[in-house]
Amino acid sequence: MTVETKLHLIGNAHLDPVWLWRWQEGYAEIKATFRSALDRLNEFPDFVFTCACAAYYKWIEENAPEMFAEIKERVAEGRWVITGGWWIQPDCNLPSGESFARHSLYGQRYFLQKFGVMANVGYNVDSFGHHGMMPQILKQSGMDSYVFMRPEAHEKALPHDLFWWESEDGSRVMTFRLSNSYGNWAKNGMEDKIVNHRNTAISDGHAIMSFYGVGNHGGGPTIENIHLIHEIQQRPDMDGIRLSSPNHYFKEMMQIGPDIPVVKDEMQMHAVGCYSTHSESKAANRRVEHRMLTAEKFATLANIMLGLPYPLEALNRAWENVMFNHFHDIMGGCSIKEAYSDVQEFYGESLSIGAKSINAALQKMSWSINTMKPGVKSLNKEKDWQLWEQGNLGTPLVVFNPLSWEVEAPIAINKKLAGVTDAAGNPLPLQTVRAPQTNIADKWDTLISGRIPAFGYQVFWAYRDQTFETKAPEGAAHTSGCMLENNQLYVELHADTGYIKRIIDKRNGFREVFAGDGAVPIVLDETHSDTWGHGLAQYRDEIGRFNKAELKVIEEGPLRATIRVISHYGNSVLRQDISLLHDSADVHVKVKLDWREQHKMLKLAFPVNVTKPRAIFEIPYGFIERQTNGHEVPGQIWVNVSGQESSTTEGNELSTFGLSLINDTKYAYDVLGNELRITVVRSPIYADHFGERDDQVEFMDQGVQEFNYVLSPHAGSWQDSGVVRKAYELHAPLMQIWETYHEGALQQVSEGITISSDNVIAVAFKPAEEGNGWILRCQETYGREAVTQLSIPTLNRSWQTTFGKCEIKTFFIPNGEHDPIQEVNFVELTKNK
């Protein structure tokens, strides 16, 4: 050894605020554990305590302020060490990229405000896996090192437990994988652990960390723990053992600079079943993450344009709920059933806050648009009980787009109409579609297709009685029997099973998209799996398939054609509404599943017609390529399988072709060879860790759930497919407000942002946490460097910047038009601070 210290002993208390208990019990345990840690600090002058998770500290601040004051003193003294920098120790695969940014924003700023320090060390010792963009997220959060435990050595081989971890953009953090648990429960076990870890340090040639303290349900270091350490320290053959913290350890390693490897990979896999457990909470998480961003964007625009007060306190409270629900035993779906009632309450409050914030902003903006028409003297609802139309002047419908690019999409209007025009008066093709109500003869809505500017809106004019001569929509969709077709795709279904028999891409040489039947609902046995999927790599034990299908045409076009497929397995029913839009190269599927199976899993399978397949998955704020070996893996909102297919051109040259699958609620996939499967549902027992399975156990995900997915075939690489924008459009749809006639300062069409590079998107737009200004966060999505021009017309701001591969950039835009725009990190501090 080249240094005196061989072993840094880390006194900690792993605290699961929710797992086999509800959050109220976790709340009480955190108070007791923090009291115990303070007692140890009083009893042993050399003791050092390490603890993460801003949420725990806030609970103490609110409920035990006298204890909080003691903690502040110990933090200032340097013996209570804050690590992690995040609101909670989240699942590190399932939250969105922006959610990780918010953990950093709210966690680090809380620590800075309350204690005058920020965490230097990222800390997720019990999370089940860690996505490959973590190094950039950590660096952007003010942390340059990281400690984790899972996957353990038997689950993932690493060249060394201390290494430089590098993400796709080139960011690096010094990372340590701890071994033999984050805690201890027995005296003999702790002594053996210390001896073994010290021997490992000597063998490695540099110090390592060893964690101790009762964990999971809190507790932390015991008096006996510390007495044992003191006894071991007195042995002549056990020198170099130090009561320490991760901060001290990484500071020492940075100074020494040991020769350690660089690892450019994700830290997976542990507990693969956690990415498909408890569909309801996962669906709620996906929905609330996108709703929060939409709420912030529109509330910010309404504030800038019209002075509407920004709902800061409410939105912050909503984010705190969302971040708490990211805790790994909650998002991982491995907590008790009762805990998920609380989870839904937290999500429900946040969804409600988001909805109210969006509505207030949209109503403020729509009410300020000049929609007055000649001849209107006052409002008068004589013509129709729903619409404010006078004569044949039309009723204004304002449609908003929360995304940073122009979106063309179907717009469903909840009224049967004779005609619709855009803001310029151009008549639009329309289609009468079934409404959700059955109100005497009033059961029809109107479908149009409209273009809405980026971060903006357009007013459409709806006419109850007046018709217009319109051109047929380009590439009209139509259906007949088991077939859907437009100018770009031909889709054929099997009449008996409802599986997709073929999709032909007419744009690209009439290619066959599938190598066999697609959208095949495969039922798998998972009796051998616990809730987590411990010890498993894949789920592939097929025991049946949904079949006995009933097919029915429910929409005939021209804007949208839809075939409803209802199939059966056991006591379960699967309904898929398979749709083709006009002039579209995508197949949209709306799913309603009534699942009544136990210890079974449902996957939808799509064999892509390519050779040499490559599988690319979206991960938080990035993407990763994985082996096509059939392993169950986590992913975000899209996955792509691409490869080579023989071309029909002269010479039979090989060309690249592929298929993207986008969905709005699911997180688990597998790819075996060229076959892509999405995991729709699992039904394990709640919180079953290979326990005794008696007749009183309860199974997950029984009953009805709904979700949507999109199949998007493409020629060329996945980066040329437009998958990222399509995925966001599924999750952040156009929004609308019925209006009436009024004067206003705003025009009938407005654009809120322009970005010159197709591979750069704006994810977040909000007020800055401090200072008079605004925050815009953008992401490079395809791994291609881009010189980009950005403009925000409402702020009269325009600037140019360069995005590196997979780079995330956060801009602070001061209110003063001549003050320079600055790049800041996730904590909204300049990068040199």
From TrEMBL:
Top EC class of this enzyme: hydrolase
Which residue intervals define the domain Glycoside hydrolase family 38 central in the entry?
A: 270-347
Q: Which SUPFAM superfamilies match?
A: Families 57/38 glycoside transferase middle domain, Galactose mutarotase-like, Glycoside hydrolase/deacetylase
Q: Annotated Gene Ontology MF terms?
A: alpha-mannosidase activity
Record's Pfam families? Alpha-mann_mid (PF09261), Glyco_hydro_38C (PF07748), Glyco_hydro_38N (PF01074)
| Keyword entries, A-Z | Glycosidase, Hydrolase, Metal-binding
InterPro entries found in the cross-reference section: Gal_mutarotase_sf_dom, Glyco_hydro/deAcase_b/a-brl, Glyco_hydro_38_C, Glyco_hydro_38_cen, Glyco_hydro_38_cen_sf, Glyco_hydro_38_N, Glyco_hydro_38_N_sf, Glyco_hydro_57/38_cen_sf
Q: Which Gene3D superfamilies match?
A: Glycoside hydrolase 38, N terminal domain (3.20.110.10), Glycoside hydrolase family 38, central domain (1.20.1270.50), Golgi alpha-mannosidase II, domain 4 (2.70.98.30)
Q: What is its EC number?
A: 3.2.1.24
Q: Where are the transmembrane segments?
A: none
The entry assigns this protein to a family as follows:
Belongs to the glycosyl hydrolase 38 family.
Would you tell me the protein name for this molecule? Alpha-mannosidase
Q: Which organism is it from?
A: Paenibacillus qinlingensis
